[in-house]
Design brief:
The chain is α+β, with helices and mostly antiparallel strands. It has one domain. The chain is built from 2 helices and 4 strands, in the order H-E-H-E-E-E. The protein has helices spanning about 10-35, 55-60, and strands at about 45-50, 70-80, 85-90, 100-105. Strands 1-4-3-2 form a 4-stranded mixed beta sheet, covered by helices on one side. Strand 3 and strand 4 form a beta hairpin. The protein is elongated and about 75 Å long. It binds zinc ion (ZN). Zinc ion binds near residues 95 and 97.
Length: about 110
């Protein structure tokens, strides 16, 4: 048997590796999208009517890396900008990646 072809096992491994890097890329795109979406950065805080809903909102957002559940680790006031914001630190329960979300408390205006 002089004919050396690529074994099926090896090509399977190559395919798996290709898929892996594809998934990582999707993860990165999602992470970028997360930063640009409301709450994803200090520049784009999510507006909420009251501080009471902040942690619930933050925990309802899926992990931008793996769609897993984010658990609230810390909730603090962020005074680096002109307006005081609320910063919630989160950690994914599945992939353990740390995330942060920013909120601006804007009580509903009377009509
Ligand atoms: Zn995750």
């Amino acid at each position: 048997m002089a004919n050396k072809k690529r074994s099926p096992k090896r090509s399977e491994q190559l395919q798996a590796r290709k898929l892996d890097s594809k998934l990582v890329k999707i993860g990165n795109d999602k992470a970028r999208l997360f930063v640009l979406s409301p709450g994803g950065s200090r520049l784009h805080p999510m507006e909420v009517g009251s501080t009471a809903v902040i942690e619930g909102r933050a925990a309802s957002v899926p992990c931008p890396q793996c769609d897993g559940r984010l658990a609230v680790k810390d909730h603090s006031v962020d005074r680096q900008g002109k307006v005081a914001l609320r910063r919630v630190k989160l950690r994914c329960v599945d992939c353990a990646s740390p995330q942060s979300m920013w909120f601006r408390v804007a009580p509903p205006r009377p009509n």
